[in-house]
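Cont'd.
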Amino acid sequence: MNEIEIIMGNAQEAFDSYKTLSPTKRAGFLHEIASALEAAREQLVPVAHEESNLPLPRLNGELTRTTNQLKMFARLIEEGSWIEAVIDTADENRTPRKPDTRKMLLPVGPVVVFGASNFPFAFSTAGGDTASALAAGSSVIIKGHSSHARTSQLVFEAMQKAIAKTGVHPYTVQHVLGSGSTVGKALVEHPYTTAVGFTGSFNGGKALWEYANRRETPIPVFAEMSSINPVVFLPDTLRANAAALAKQYAASITLGMGQFCTNPGLLIAVQSEALDQFLGLLGEEFTRINPEKMLNSNIHSSYYTALNKALEQKGIEKVGEAGKNAGEGEAFPTVAKVKAGIFLQNPHFREEVFGPYSLAVCCENKDELKTVLRQLKGQLTTTIMATDTDIAGNGDIIDLQTTLAGRIILNDVPTGVEVCASMVHGGPFPATTDGRFTSVGTSAIKRWVRPVCFQGFKDSMLPDALKNNNPLKIWRIVNNEWTNAPI
Amino acid sequence: MNEIEIIMGNAQEAFDSYKTLSPTKRAGFLHEIASALEAAREQLVPVAHEESNLPLPRLNGELTRTTNQLKMFARLIEEGSWIEAVIDTADENRTPRKPDTRKMLLPVGPVVVFGASNFPFAFSTAGGDTASALAAGSSVIIKGHSSHARTSQLVFEAMQKAIAKTGVHPYTVQHVLGSGSTVGKALVEHPYTTAVGFTGSFNGGKALWEYANRRETPIPVFAEMSSINPVVFLPDTLRANAAALAKQYAASITLGMGQFCTNPGLLIAVQSEALDQFLGLLGEEFTRINPEKMLNSNIHSSYYTALNKALEQKGIEKVGEAGKNAGEGEAFPTVAKVKAGIFLQNPHFREEVFGPYSLAVCCENKDELKTVLRQLKGQLTTTIMATDTDIAGNGDIIDLQTTLAGRIILNDVPTGVEVCASMVHGGPFPATTDGRFTSVGTSAIKRWVRPVCFQGFKDSMLPDALKNNNPLKIWRIVNNEWTNAPI
């Protein structure tokens, strides 16, 4: 595949140039991309709407999130402590002599980013993966998602304006369209590729991870794949807040027609009158939710295949559904329930149904609820809905949840992922291929770097971050103490 | 394999208890292990000497390094900032409301550590992998190395005394002997195992990594595998310091009979009279080095197989060798040279020869030298020997070296790995399976944890590291600012 050869050669050349730019220059480039996207808003949003069926207000908000992410990474690299500068100065008097050693994080090389169907802006062409990789100093090759190819191309064109304006290497960002199993595979397998970012299906992410591991030199793949985001409802809150909870969760389950990685797909509680009441109210809420168009025909047909398969399982019972029929391309919001005893016997219930669907699991008692939690696979999020009375006796449940996911939420919904330094949008396999990293928030930059130690280097030879006089004025660990002072 | 089932059940139970201990308690346990090892020194060192053929002074030094490592990790977790506490407080006035999110690193679960043949103390039973995993809050299952099984058992017994004395869960550390391809494989494949530490051969490390990746839930394997640690000699230093360099490098290549992962196995320079002189002096130095016993018969026979294979290659020329014949079990120190043109054609020359052997690569010019560097696989270290004059014109060589290894050394030897916060003992594949981590120094603890975000938690429910009043008094990032103050 000659085209890939040319693209990757360009990406390597761009990396060799781009990685030498100062953090200030890289931050300036990120700001220019944000400005170029903002300038193209009137053009971008309608095309994304046409391609994705997502509502205009949502897309406008997503574009703002995208530009904010770019600015956040710009601030991060200007602040500079993310590079983890650690310095141990020499000790000539020790026997044996202690050398001067200094380490920091350096970018690994060209990064391949796969656009995600469900976020045409924030997790695609100029989304979080791209922004964090550019911030780290990587060149980026974007494999645009076919379901919003025109949006992807337009976003790329905006990025090219920022490239022209700032004079960074012209191939710092490249854009390619095509199938994941041919073009995507070839990009992952190319020897110049050093890391991969992906948000999508389990099968898609797992395949990329396998290509990467079969390389002569394996590379990391950060694939965010599948999660059913279990929510535990404790008894006191169900008694006290059934109606409010029903409203809150009906909205969260069907938000964006359930096409979020953090969609609450599993509602777990111990059987009680209050639970029955809550599920009744939840069912009622669903009748007031209208079917809407899904992102594309693949996702639409996958939803119905998965939904019908779920509803065919022995012991499942529908709790509620949308009050009117779904039109062409539309999802049909549905909520069902099953006894935990049956749930535990049937691994099918633990699979993700990507769309506006959730399954309530009704447990005989707390022990069974804990067994359900123990049987789940790794998740992006898990939530606990609880009053103070509930919390008092149920630390063991929260402990179990902590082992299960990257983010544990108290008394809120998992949909809505705050973009900030403390966010973890990641989790144990199969939620992601690598639960040690996040794809949202400033820490997402850590996916594209590795530490390098410089031993015995003269001050003038060291990167600025490690120089004695601390020209970047960053926080560092110097001889085991945190400081932003010069040495 | 019923024994493994029992061991891993115990390890999980121990983890559930041990992870709840405060950093101070865990630090106390590490200190007790160090004391117990110190108390057993007179017993441990002679047995290790008998099993490994390593000289007594080296083993005494290695045991001190081992106890120092334990104390270093104790200090690290008492200081506490390693857990990367990041806090973003809520903003009720923002639309939508900004939630309170707080993240930190938490231990992942039971860790399997494989003892290394070449470091019976520092990279084995109570070595750096075990110390860092215990510091992180993991329970540890040690697969003792068969070539020092008695030493491993004695070290484990010392650790058991520390367990008894501190009252930590009795199965916090467990010890098992047996073959890597049966017992080791079963440990890596067990569902309760969450991470693996290994130092040894490429084939051994790669096999463990493959077992781990074939699991239903893949887990990280931190295998430090193979490195030839290329050293670049620039012309001016060869002219000025040939005799000193020859002495320094003859000693480094043959230190511990070359049985170090950081042994300088490749000496690269541009052809010159000074290079010829240096190689002549290096050869002379070798005649003064005596053959010594290697670690075990496998390593001994592997050395001769690899050495003979290397010396059979077309274009290779011996530069020097030990002045007397090798006795039974002894290595025969050897240094050879080859023209870069031939080196570049024959991938065999890039394979590690584990033992007191090094190959000089003589380049026609600087461009060829850079081609040699570009063709090398990932390394633990790479070194540049250079005067100020040399450095001035050769930044491009140092840049290339920076992409190659975890540690770049100026004017020193790669053997000798300082145990400190800024050390990187790791490097791109195949030096290790994961170049983003180190197995030496405080950062080694990062291998056994993953980040977890707590959203909307009440202060009393949060781990101490994330509480408002900062009871651990650690450095944290609060609303994007570094601080050790309470909130």
